[in-house]
Each structure stands twice: as structure tokens, then as C-alpha cells.
Amino acid sequence: MLEYRNTVIKDFVLIATILIITFFLSTQLDLFEKTHDLIHVLENLFVTSVLFSMVLILLSIYRYIKFVGEIDRRQALEQKLKFVDDRYKTIYYETLNPVFTVDQKGNYLAANPAGLDFLECNPSELIAKNIWDTAPPDKIEEMKQRHSPFLERRTVETDYLVNGKVKTLLLNVLPISNGDETYLYGIGHDITERKQTEQQLKYYALHDHLTGLKNRAYFEQKLEYYKATDTTIGIVLIDLDGLKLINDTLGHPAGDNYLIIIAETLIKNYGSYYELARIGGDEFAILIPNANKDILESVCNNIEQLVDNYNESNNSNISISLGHACQGKGLASVYDVFKEADNQMYRRKLHRKQSNRNAITQTLVNALEARDFNTEGHCERLELLITKIAEAFKMSSSTIYDLKLFARFHDIGKVGISDQILFKPGRLTKSEFIEMQRHSEIGYRIAQSSLDLAPIAEWILKHHEWWNGKGYPLGLKGEQIPLESRILSIIDAYDAMTNTRPYRKPLTHEEAVAELQRCAGTQFDPKLTPIIIDILEEIHSKDSHK
Question: How many other C-beta atoms lie within 10 A of the C-beta of residue 225?
């Protein structure tokens, strides 16, 4: 632009100079009157000068017009460049991606707002930092190796320590030269959450989420590892007895709590020395390098003692079965060792199976009493009623004994129902009632696990069946329902009606009897109901005269 302006100025100066000289000569023509040829020459020169000046003037006008057009074009270009520059600045400041600029020594020079937010600092705090000031101390050496050579275009994962938290950027690094110096321009994408998710996935790929112990996959990896070494390996297997029964009756949280107790016991006593893993739903394993029979037996005895101590201190009945084996005596492979330990554990489990089940059943009975189902003497009253009815029916003493057990434990399945439902003061919702109905099946499974209660397991399962088939859980009808279950359902209903419930006041004897008569043939056995009512009338009459 400056070149065009100077050219136009020069043209005008030249034109002005020619016109001034020509005009001066034309005013002095009288000096050359006698020299006509010279005058003729001067006149021609004047005309020529004028013509030449006009050409120069036209040329200058053209150049001026071109100069003005160039100014407009340059101004338009500058406007476009300014627009582009503004857009780049907007992108720089508004982008959600952190952007940093550092010098060759790693000193921060600038950052966009997203970068400042990422590092949780302001501009003055930023420029006082070096990139190694924001790196986790334990990763600085690794990062230096990963980031070398410094002045190269690359994409790297970079960790930052920000107010005690580790954050991660996927950073695109661009070297930018500015004359004598080169700077690094970094555009980052925050992948902190992704990295945390990846770490969690890696953790849970080799760990049990409930206990925190290593899992089956890790255990098998270690078996493969030891398979290729000369280390003598011993394996101890621990099985929690009756986990399915515990889950079915007390609920999965109770079963999970038992598993956690065992895991914590193992971690506390052996976590610093041996490899621990939960290799199945109810099974744990300990890998012991350089093991021998004495070491394995000592570990097993100690674990049994630790569980016994826990049971004694916490009024609990956790039961476990153990097995162990080590390489040698025909067990060359680590997989042979595992198989032998598993077989030994299974043999011990079979040997103590019934005693373990009885211990678990006793635990459930204790839980039933602890939950205070018998606050109002419900079970005792049922025992008395069912005994008198059985005697009236001339039943055998053994049957009467079973009926008394039935009266006491018919609701044992309620140990598996949540307190929120069990002790709800108002009426149950439909979903809550469906959950409550499960107690018959839970009680059946508990009774089957006990030598004492096994004879009454079927009665427990069916004591909420109705004569018309609309009861639960099987929908049996008529005489498909065991006699003992039909008897209990009548006296259980009578006792429930004549005693206080959280959601209603008790009925009188007469009102309860009328309700039994109304439900005969639907809920209750129509032939059995009048007979039992007569017995109830007799008992009530005697009690009234006392």
C-alpha cells in the first residue's frame, strides 16, 4: 500500500515539474522572435509536454483508482482476518477442553478457562507453576520418560495432582516456534472418569466385589504361575456350611455377612503372608508357597479356632468345612493339589453335614425367639389348644409331640421376612403380602434341614392352604391338605382373632366363632370346623368359670 502511494506522489511531482518548465518557456517566447525555427521547436515541445503530462495524469488517475481499490481489498482482508482471529479467540476461551501453553523448561505460560478449571487455579497461580509441580510425585519419573523428547508433536496420557486428587488428560502436544523460541501448545481431553472406570473394571476382573479378596480368575492365574515354577505349593480350602439355607431363610444380606466375617478373619490373620481368594459362592482358598503338611494342618486348626472364638463371642453358629493338600506323594501338579484339597473338604463336609445343619437350624430358632414373635404367648396357646384337640381325636403320643412342635415352629419361616413387613402396624400392601407368603416355603426349607423338625416340614409348608384351593403356596384344596395343617389353620385363626394385633382390637370369643363358621367350606374344612368349635366352646366355658 505504501508503494502505491509513493508512485502516485512521484507521478504528480513529475507532471507538475514539466508543466512549470513548459509554462515558463512559453512566457519567454519574445526572447526568440528572430529565431523562428527555435520558436517552432519550443511550441512543439510545449504541445508534447502537455500531451505527455496528460498521459501521466491519466496514468496517475489509474494508479490512484487501483490504490484506492487495493486499500478497500486490504481493509476487507483485515476484517476477515480479524473475524477469524476473534473466532479463534472465542474457541480458545469457550472450548470445554483444557488448553495450556508452556515453554521449553516446562513452565506454564497461559491456559484457557477450562484449563484453569481443570487445575483449579487462577492465572497468577498457574504461571508460578512448572508442569512437574502439577504431576503426582510417584509418577514424575515415568512421565518424564513418556514425554521425552520434549519438543515433539505427540499424543500422551498425562496425570495431574489437583488438590489431592489425581486427574488425567489425553493431551495433544504441538510445538510452536516463535522466532528464537519454541513453545508447547497442549490441547487436552479430560479422561479422569474413564480412567477410574477402567481401573475399577481391572480391579473387579481380579477381585471379589463382596469380600475384597481375589477372585477365581486370579486364583487360576496364580495356579498357572506356580505351575511353571519349582515352588512347592499347598492349598487350603474353606467352605461356609449351609449358605443356601441361610440365604433362603435369613436373607442374602445375612449370608453375605457370614461370608464377609470369614473373609475378614482370613485377611487379618493370613493376608500379609499368603494368597487369599474367594473361588465360589461359599468357598475360599489359601495358596501357601513352600508348604508342607504341618504348615497346612496348623493353618486349618487355627482357622477353626478363630471361627469358634467368633461364635462364642458373638453368640453365632458359623460353621465351616476345611480341606488341604500340598505337592508331593503323587500330587505333582498344582491342579492335582487343588483337586485333593477339594475332595478332602467335601469328605469332611459330608461327615459333619447333619450336625452343621442342626447348628444352623438352632441359629434360626434363636433368631425367631430374638425377633420376639411370641410376645403375647401365641405359640404356647396354640400348643395347649392343639394338644387338647389331638387328645379329643385320640391321636398317638408321638403325633401329639409332632403337633406341639408344629404349633411352636409353624411360623419359623418368618425369620426370612423383613422387620419392615413383619411388624408393620397397618395392613400390608399387595406386594408386601406376596413377600409375607414366602414364609411358608422358607419354614419348609428350615424344617427339612433339622432332624427334629423334618417330620413337620410338609405341615409347615401347607398350613396356609384353603379348603377351596385359594390359599398359598401350592393352591391345594380339600383333603389334599394334611389334616394337621387343617387343624392348625383353624386354631391359628381363632387365636389371632381373639388377641390384639397392631392394626386392630381383639374380637370376642363369640365373634371369632361366628367368623370361623362363616369361613367353613371356603377357608376351613367344613366337617372339621364344627368339631373344633365345640372343643373351643368347652375350653372357653371352663376358662370363664375360673
Answer: 14
